[in-house]
Amino acid sequence: MMADPAPLDDDAKRAALEHLLSQPGFRASPRNRDFLRFVVEETLAGRSDRIKAYTIAVDVFGRRADFDGMLDPVVRIEAGRLRQALANYYIGEGHLDRVRIGLPRGGYAPAFEAIGMAPPAAGAAAPIATAREPAETPAEPAPPVQAKAVRRDPLSRITAELPRRPWWLAGLAAAFLALLALGLFALDRTRDQVEAQPPLVLVAQVQALSDDSPTTALSRTLSRSLPAAISRFEGLTVIAARPDQSDRDLIAGIFAREPPSRRVYMVTASVKADSRSARAFWRLTDGRNEAILWSGTTDSPFTRNAGVAPEDDIAQTIANAIASRRGVISAFEWKAIPTPPAPGYACVTLARGFATVLTDSLRGEMTACLEGTVAQDPDNAEAWALLGYIYADENRSRSAEPEVAKAALAKAEAAAAKAEALAPYSSLTQETVSVVAFQSGDMQRFEAAGKRAMEMNPENPGRQVVFYNRLFLLGRYDEAIDGLRQAIGRRATPVAMDQIFIIVDLYRRQDYGAALAALEKIQLPNFYLYWLLLAATQGELGNPQPARDAVANLLRLRPNYGAGMRVDFRNRRFEDDLIDRLANGLRKAGLQIK
Fold first, then answer.
1. Which of 398, 467, 394 shows the shortest CA–CA distance to 428?
2. Residue 213 CB-density burial (10 A; 0-12 exposed, 13-18 middle, 19+ buried)
3. φ, ψ for residue 129 (rounded to 5)?
4. Rounded Cα–Cα distance for residues 213 and 252 (Å)
5. What is the 3-state secondary structure (H, E, C) of 200-233?
6. Quick one: how far is CA 317 from the chain centroid?
7. Please, what is the end-to-end C-alpha distance for the chain in angstroms?
8. Nearest Cα to Cα of residue 247 among 297, 292, 207
9. Does domain 492-594 bear CATH number 1.25.40?
10. What is the pLDDT of residue 71?
11. Tens of pLDDT along 192-244?
12. Please, what's the largest Cα pairwise distance for the chain?
């Protein structure tokens, strides 16, 4: 019987790292080699508590001190690539390695594993250590919606036995395993390609909870309004049940023609109406296992909005909760997307969620995968629209480099034109046209396209926030703030960033107490505008110490910001009088403004 593996000392672990990094079969990028070296060396130095996304981003990838992992997923993306490089190495050239390094999911601390090693004899040299991700790795958090099962590496047990067998048998087994590994790799790629499809959303007939005429009429009209409202959101394939079709018949028909890998959601609702209001009870379930993923109750008092029919009001509320960028389905879909995302559905889904909160690194990742998507599928209107949106953001963020910004705007205009040619009646297309027009200074087109986008999908509050934020920058303050407040009220869940222009307007109106109260209700510690507004507000209120603290946090995120404050706000198209007011508050807070 073979002895249990002996614990590896630090020298063996260092040898494992150096050996791995010297192997041509370990195909990791230079910065991911640095990533691996950093986490191993920090662990061996007893500093494993420093192995966090922030430290890796700053120390390895050169991110600034204001790095925010929620907005910039570079560490998560590169960790996925590093894990893949390790896995490829160990099913290929490194399959006989006897000591392996892994990067278990759920964190970034390395794990070392000795495979089939007996304790070395006294005085024997330490074996060369190499790396392997543990055979069984906890899956990334994934929704109960058609989540991939965690698969045990079928090669690890067999390769662990190879050193104990005759050399010719080991060689024969190794050749067999190489073929098997290729087959498993191809199978996994095929599975991923099959799974990378937009989910199906099945909408059952709405059930009446009583036999009275108002309730039965509402159930019929909501059965038509609800699937229509959900279908206005991009990235979903919506199928509505026929009036005579039961839930089980609807699902059975879908399962008969769709592959088991495709995710299926089911929306069911029931209603009750009286002379004063209507109430709907709804839930979202996994269509394959009937697990309840979310549920809610929606009320529509008839006096609340005389211009909107109750069935449309209810349908819009449910659709927003389920299908918006920050809705329930998006949350589940994002968890299931591999990193980095492949071109196609996965890329488009991720870009849809991050397009409005781009950082330099995230912009680069999204640009690359979207360009790959349109190269593979030139008729993908949604990918073209998102690409135009991201190019427009690059134009705004690179204004200090005129030639780069000019080229980005030209690409944005071309992508927006392509999206409009392919899908002129898409609300996402019109949103992109609006954003690109704003960047190019065509304010008439900005407003017309923005309003068309909101008319095409009135259930999407995120789209409305984007439009009214830019309208605010044109100096149409009251109109913009009124629209913003209405859009924020339609959010299924609060979004802290939505409050920024509300707070700017309170400051503009010199209501500093209300501005401070609003700032204290949100927490955006890694967003420099939060600290800027807090510093200026505290400065105007005559609170010197809190003002200085806020300035210190602002400078932590944006060193020497006072020198470029005016340029920054002009690039964002703020009106000069508002820039002057903010600069005055910052001076009172102790920041030198040029």
1. 467
2. exposed
3. -100, 140
4. 31
5. EEEECCCEECCCCHHHHHHHHHHHHHHHHHHHCC
6. 23
7. 77
8. 207
9. yes
10. 66
11. 443 457 788 999 999 999 999 889 989 899 998 898 888 888 778 888 888 88
12. 91
Give the C-alpha separation, 539 to 584, whole Å.
9
Cβ burial, residue 104 (10 Å; 0-12/13-18/19+): middle
What is the Cα–Cα distance from 541 to 547, expressed in whole angstroms? 9
- Confidence at residue 159, expressed as pLDDT on a 0 to 100 scale: 33
Where do runs of H (alpha helix) occur along 73-134? 74-90
Q: What's the rounded Cα separation, in Å, for the pair 148 and 139? A: 8
- In terms of DSSP H, where are the helices of 355-426? 360-376, 381-397, 402-422
Q: Which CA distances in Å does 115 have to 120, 122, 154, 508?
A: 13, 20, 15, 66
Q: Do domains 200-228+237-324 and 492-594 have the same CATH topology?
A: no
185: nearest Cα among 97, 261, 88, 83: 88
Is 60 exceeded by the pLDDT of residue 125?
A: no
Mean pLDDT of 181-189: 40
Q: Which two tokens stand for residue 16?
A: 């494992």
* pLDDT class of 339 with cuts at 50, 70, 90: low
- The helix (H) or strand (E) run that includes residue 452 is helix 443-456
pLDDT at 176 (0 to 100): 38
**Mean pLDDT over the full length of the chain:** 79
Check residues 297 and 584 and name the one with the higher pLDDT: 584
pLDDT category, 334, cuts 50, 70, 90? low
**Burial 375-412, CB ≥16 within 10 A → b, else e:** eeeeebbbbbbbbbbbbbbbbbbbbeeeeebeebbebb
Contact present, 221 and 311 (Cβ < 8 Å): yes
Rg (CA), the chain: 28
pLDDT of res. 586 = 97
What mean pLDDT do residues 472-479 have?
Answer: 94
200-228+237-324 classified as CATH 3.30.70: no
What are the residue ranges spanned by the domains of the chain? 10-188, 200-228+237-324, 492-594
**Residue 231 neighbours by CB under 8 Å, 6+ apart:** 238
Asked if 308 and 490 touch (Cβ cutoff 8 Å), the reply is no
Residue 39, C-beta contacts closer than 8 angstroms, at least 6 positions apart: 51, 56, 103, 108, 109, 110
Look at residue 78 in the predicted model and tell me its pLDDT.
Answer: 83
Average pLDDT over residues 93-112: 79
d(C-alpha 51, C-alpha 66), whole Å: 17
- DSSP letters for 320-343: HHHHSTTSHHHHHHHHH--SSPPT
